[in-house]
Amino acid sequence: HRVDGVLLVSVHADDPLPDLVAQLGIPAVISGPRSAAEALTSVDSDNYGGARSAVEHLLSRGRRRIAHITGHMDVYGAQRRVDGYRDALADAGLTDDDLLIEEGDFTEEGGHRAMARLLEREPALDAVFAGSDVTAAGARQVLRASGRRIPDDVALVGYDDSAIARHMDPPLTSVRQPIEEMGRAMIDLLLIEIADRRPPESAAPERRHAVLATELVVRTSS
User: Taking the domains of the chain in order of start, what are their residue ranges?
Assistant: First the structure.
């Protein structure tokens, strides 16, 4: 059956599918580029800016020992969130010695494990920026079990502004991604790619890369 176009979602850096699609000359749009040099047309949210806004918010609340639980580090969006975290701390006069980074995997279990490692490394940490709301839920369990109050002892910020954030106790401050707008942008760009379709042996057309703004939704966890 003939395929007019492909939408690629949740792609890791080593996934061969995007390059195969490109080699076949099939119009495609990827959600979240694999790197800064992404060869396919892509749509993403501003992971760097979203992370910066989260950390700057925590700094504005007087927090200084701010930890970050990342997502999968083979995902470019997770790498950009680390960059935003690092740069926000640097702009506040903190150094690499102040960085508290533990890799997670965007899951509750990953957040649980990473939070336990962070408390072992730095019991005096006073804030956590998690790579997803699900990860934040895992971190919250460990903080509560250790006797730490949120946000009195440790402020907590997540990412995605999912239903989990709204229903957590206390409600979770989180970075909202414009998911619906991203979906519409992917469809719009794919239709353009289909209209511009060329044979695989022809010169590659200029690729388009859309980055949509995020929004920090402040709740009582921070």
Answer: 6-45+178-217, 48-176
CATH number belonging to domain 6-45+178-217: 3.40.50.2300
Tens-place pLDDT, residues 182-209: 999 999 999 999 988 765 555 555 678 9
Q: Which residue has the higher pLDDT, 114 or 37?
A: 114
DSSP string for residues in the chain: -----EEE-S--TT-SHHHHHHHTT--EEEES-SSTT--SEEEEE-HHHHHHHHHHHHHHTT--SEEEE---TTSHHHHHHHHHHHHHHHHTT--GGG-EEE---SSHHHHHHHHHHHHHH-TT--EEEESSHHHHHHHHHHHHHTT--TTTT-EEEEEE--HHHHHSSSPPEEEEP-HHHHHHHHHHHHHHHHHT---TTSPPPPP-EEEEPPEEE--TT-
User: Closest Cα to residue 61, out of 123, 132, 152?
Assistant: 152
Indicate the pTM of the whole model.
Answer: 0.90
The span from the CA of 121 to the CA of 37, in Å, is 35
Give residue-wise pLDDT tens across range 112-157. Answer: 999 999 999 999 999 999 999 999 999 999 999 999 999 999 999 9
Residue 140 and residue 19: Cα distance in Å, rounded?
A: 39
CATH number of 48-176: 3.40.50.2300
